[in-house]
Amino acid sequence: MTSLFSLSLALLSLSFLTTAVAASEFTFHEATIESIHLAFAQNRLTSRQLVDFYLDRIQTLNPSLRCVLEVNPNALAQADEADRLRAAAAGGNGTLGDLHGIPVLLKDSIGTDDKMNTTAGSYALLGARVPRDAFVVERLRSAGAVILGKASMSERYSLRSPQMPRGWCARGGQGVNPYVKSVNPCGSSTGSAIAVAANMVTVSLGTETDSSIICPADHNSVVGFKPTVGLTSRAGVMLISPSQDSIGPMSRTVSDAVHVLDAIVGFDPRDEATEEAAKFIPMGSYKQFLREDGLNGKRLGIVRHPFSDYKGSTAASIFDQHLMTFGSKGATLVDNLEIENIDIILKPSRNGEMTVLRAQFKHYINEYLGGLSNSPVKSLAEVIAFNSNNPDLEKMEKYNQDGLIAAQMTSILDDDVVKAQHRMTKLSEEGFEKLMKENELDAMVTLGSNAATIPAFGGYPVLTVPAGYDDNGMPFGICFGGLKGSEAKLIEIAYSFELATRMRKPPLSFSTEFHYPYYEQSYGTM
Ligand SMILES: *[C@@H]1O[C@H](CO)[C@@H](O)[C@H](O)[C@H]1NC(C)=O
Ligand SMILES: *[C@@H]1O[C@H](CO)[C@@H](O)[C@H](O)[C@H]1NC(C)=O
């Protein structure tokens, strides 16, 4: 580890010297989509310089943070093309997409029909070809985004094995929290969170069934947004659950998340849930809800039990300060609300969720694998056989595949699966829905990410914003959950909160675990 670190430091000083000369004014560190667009417009930055910067960061930091599985061999070419189109646009054709020239990293379960692999972290799918780009990737491309690469994740959304820690996959190893190395970065959208946190990309996409965007965002001090199920198409993405899965942005600011959300939402004939959810998409764009006074007049329900004490007193007292900020910005707080059956909802052994998800996973992974060409594996049974036959590659001595084997024995038609599904629906109706409606809430507000499970059962939207750091420098977020289609309100609340508090700090400036003293001050601003 030590030699690796000194090598990284040497590389860092080198790349600092070259990059500093190339771009004089633009601040790469913590760059936002708006700051990038401004720099593009003022000819202070090109998309190529931006991609160069991130590729450099990835090369330097990825050996220690393990958050990127592949970089796109076409990323620089895409950046050049974006720069060329921008020059043409300046000559009169002014129709550039909202993400024009902006680098985006994708979770490794989001299919791309290009030179990259889509593997959900496992070796079994290396070399397989997807039939087409995932719908969200098509949307990103048509908004002008540069696809920078594939982010690491918990292998097969953690479903491979109950032994496996979050953020581990055979291809990438263990993802590392850039704030406190010894604390798990959470998952399953692990690399998507770490890379954004450590300024290795502008924004990323994650996916969430239950907590998989919100938890890693919370643990790595970034914004994570799980939209209402159906707002973003799952077509071309490895699916677990049609009723719970959602694709969403991860970013350093609420505004960046909203830029990405605008680009990826919409009706897609290949995902029928998008038809019903399309009614939630506002005229214009979600950017109109980036309002500084967005907290004014909102009713916020505070659920403390059992969330407010889980990280100790520092986080809880910072949370209380945030509640006062809400009040001072014109929100009404309905405090100390309780969710019915909260202890059952939060307990995997009692809520029925694992029974449902394993069966759905089996069904939809078989469907997904069946649609691939050139794939070494065509079904879950063949994935299991692949792992058994390639124990070294898949590091089977380290973690078993008991989760996959359990999934293989299920069927979505099984009685206990259907019953468990009803149970989850009932828990959601009598818990979250009732809480929101009886108290006429615009959002449920909780400390940390553990509450993300509550809206997850019903496919509701959740948004987390960096809210502070505990005594060890460990980040935590504040989590807003809303009823279906309430993205506009969640954006107003989160944006207004973020402007009032500005809690996020980049990881390397204060961490006691990583020492890049020279690095932070010099590379960051130029
Ligand atoms: C302007 O750009 C768009 C998108 O690149 C293109 O389809 C269109 O043909 C261009 N129009 C002109 C007048 O060049
Ligand atoms: C995708 O996987 C193949 C191995 O099958 C590898 O040769 C190729 O380099 C990978 N693509 C990228 C972009 O890393």
TrEMBL record:
Source species, domain of life: Eukaryota
Residue ranges occupied by any Amidase domain in the UniProt entry: 50-490
Pfam entry (one): Amidase
Keyword Signal: yes
InterPro entries: Amidase_dom, AS_sf
Keywords: Signal
SUPFAM superfamilies: Amidase signature (AS) enzymes
Signal sequence residues: 1-23
Protein name from the UniProt record: Amidase domain-containing protein
Species this chain originates from: Eucalyptus grandis (Flooded gum)
